[in-house]
């Protein structure tokens, strides 16, 4: 999937803005398993495995149908209307509800960007030693420069090999003395512990599995890939594009969820089995030691840097598009300039917050974890708005007849709301 356009001549190019900047013209998109499993996801899955063993494997397996359903709904809304989720929500909901949802989404994305910037600093320290705040600032600025000057697909072709380090978790699971029947059973049979720690972790896993930015990104990707004349039409060309998107979503999501499952299983087989907690990056690296030996910190460092650089453009791009769409109804090239500047502002806020947290000596693993918790808490209202939007014929056309998609979306929404309510109840009433 191409997420960039090359240099083009047009009004924005004459204004001095990089018309090939992927965030201004194309919008965010989902590019790989690594993008869906950014450093926040890697640390959250590792923490879940270290603390609860196999008890949360079921989240990766059972969330798959609903995760696919939400992405397909988001894509169909974009195909039917030719607009992203933010513009559609703006048209169909009250102003107060809409702005509250957008604000929560922006806050979650900025904090997620900050966490990924911290992760790049930690990854660089694992590789070369040195100052985490300095490395975080350098890699944050590098990410802005790449997004602004280099077509995303061009540097993603290189960075994806760094993200391949994630498959080391699969190797750890395969060579460890694991009970495969037990692992398979726990992947489909939920085991729930009624405690604050359990439900907070559940929200974190939910936030990194069905993250809000993923849904906004899916809609923008559909607009990017669909021919302009097919938008809002039910012709054969539009249907072919939707079928292609459906296949890509099915494959990409199973790869993403499987990677999360293996990260969790590897942490369970190493840290949890030894009764060892996960308190810092070196503890996280020890999960890979059965496979990588003394090079485990280097493998984790490369994975953190690679996945962060791949995930930051969709995170910042989806936030920039949401921010601009919340106050501007313009589409196409007319949106390029404000989205480009919004991208820089969002990235600058995230980098500043990330560097500030490292200077305040906030433990990076905790920052990444709480970023996922914030995403999980933010996901519920976004999911509610999206599933209600999927029932409006003016927004989704004939999709309202597809009860299976709506049922899967409602199931995930009710579950996310129940997890949020259970965490609140355990925290305040026990």
Structural description of this entry:
There is one protein chain. By secondary structure, the chain is mostly helical. The chain has one domain (about 10-190, about 210-375): Amino acid/polyamine transporter I, CATH 1.20.1740. It has helices spanning about 10-15, 20-25, 35, 40-50, 55-60, 65-80, 85-90, 95-130, 130-150, 150-165, 170-175, 180-190, 195-210, 210-225, 235-270, 280-285, 290, 295-325, 335-360, 365-390, 395, 405-430. The protein is globular, with a radius of gyration of 21 Å. The protein starts with 10 loop residues before the first helix and ends with a helix. Residues about 1-30 have low confidence and may be disordered.
The top level CATH class name: Mainly Alpha
SSE pattern: HHHHHHHHHHHHHHHHHHHHHH
Range of helix content: over 70%
Number of strands: 0
Work out the radius of gyration: 21 Å
Average pLDDT metric: 81
Strand content range: under 5%
Low-confidence stretches: 1-32
What's the shape? globular
Category by helix and strand content: mainly alpha
Per CATH, the architecture is: Up-down Bundle
Q: What is the name of the CATH topology?
A: Amino acid/polyamine transporter I
In short:
With 430 residues, the chain is mostly helical. It is built from 22 helices and no strands.
Top keywords for this entry?
Amino acid/polyamine transporter I; 430 residues; Divalent metal cation transporter; 0% strand; mainly alpha; transport
Task: Outline the fold blueprint.
Layout: H1 11-14, H2 22-25, H3 33-36, H4 39-52, H5 57-62, H6 64-81, H7 85-92, H8 95-128, H9 132-149, H10 152-163, H11 168-175, H12 180-188, H13 196-209, H14 212-225, H15 236-272, H16 281-286, H17 289-292, H18 296-325, H19 336-359, H20 364-389, H21 393-396, H22 403-429
Helix pairs in contact: 4-13, 4-15, 4-20, 6-14, 6-15, 6-22, 8-9, 8-18, 8-19, 8-20, 9-19, 10-18, 11-15, 13-20, 13-22, 14-18, 18-19, 20-22
């Amino acid at each position: 999937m191409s997420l960039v356009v090359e240099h083009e001549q047009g009004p924005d190019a004459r204004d001095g803005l990089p018309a090939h900047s992927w965030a201004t013209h194309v919008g965010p998109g989902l590019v790989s398993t690594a993008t869906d499993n950014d450093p926040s996801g890697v640390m959250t899955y590792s923490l879940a495995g270290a603390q609860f063993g196999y008890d949360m494997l079921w989240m990766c397996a059972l969330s798959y149908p609903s995760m696919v359903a939400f992405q397909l709904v988001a894509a169909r809304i974009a195909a039917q209307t030719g607009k992203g989720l933010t513009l559609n929500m703006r048209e169909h909901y009250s102003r107060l509800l809409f702005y509250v949802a957008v604000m929560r989404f922006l806050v979650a994305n900025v904090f997620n960007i900050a966490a990924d910037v911290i992760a790049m600093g930690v990854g660089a320290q694992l590789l070369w030693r040195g100052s985490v705040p300095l490395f975080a600032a350098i890699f944050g600025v590098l990410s802005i420069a790449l997004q602004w000057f280099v077509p995303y697909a061009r540097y993603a072709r290189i960075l994806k090999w760094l993200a391949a380090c994630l498959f080391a978790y699969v190797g750890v699971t395969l060579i460890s003395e694991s009970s495969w029947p037990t692992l398979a059973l726990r992947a489909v049979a939920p085991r729930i512990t009624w405690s604050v720690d359990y439900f907070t972790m559940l929200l974190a896993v939910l936030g990194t599995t069905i993250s809000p930015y993923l849904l906004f990104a899916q809609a923008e990707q559909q607009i990017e890939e669909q021919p302009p004349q097919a938008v809002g039409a039910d012709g054969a060309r539009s249907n072919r594009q939707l079928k292609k998107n459906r296949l890509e979503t099915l494959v990409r999501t199973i790869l993403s969820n499987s990677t999360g499952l293996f990260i969790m299983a590897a942490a369970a087989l190493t840290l949890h089995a030894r009764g060892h907690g996960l308190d810092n990056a070196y503890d996280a690296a020890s999960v890979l030691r059965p496979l990588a030996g003394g090079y485990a910190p280097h493998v984790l460092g490369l994975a953190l840097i690679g996945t962060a650089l791949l995930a930051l453009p969709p995170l910042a791009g989806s936030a920039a598009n949401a921010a601009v769409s919340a106050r501007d109804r313009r589409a196409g090239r007319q949106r390029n300039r404000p989205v480009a500047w919004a991208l820089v502002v969002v990235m600058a806020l995230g980098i500043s917050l990330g560097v500030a947290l490292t200077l305040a000596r906030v433990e990076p693993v905790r920052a990444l974890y709480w970023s996922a918790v914030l995403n999980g808490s933010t996901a519920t209202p976004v999911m509610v708005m999206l599933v209600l939007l999927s029932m409006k014929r003016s927004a989704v056309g004939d999709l309202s007849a597809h009860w299976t998609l709506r049922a899967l979306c409602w199931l995930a929404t009710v579950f996310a709301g129940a997890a949020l309510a259970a965490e609140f109840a355990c925290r305040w009433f026990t």
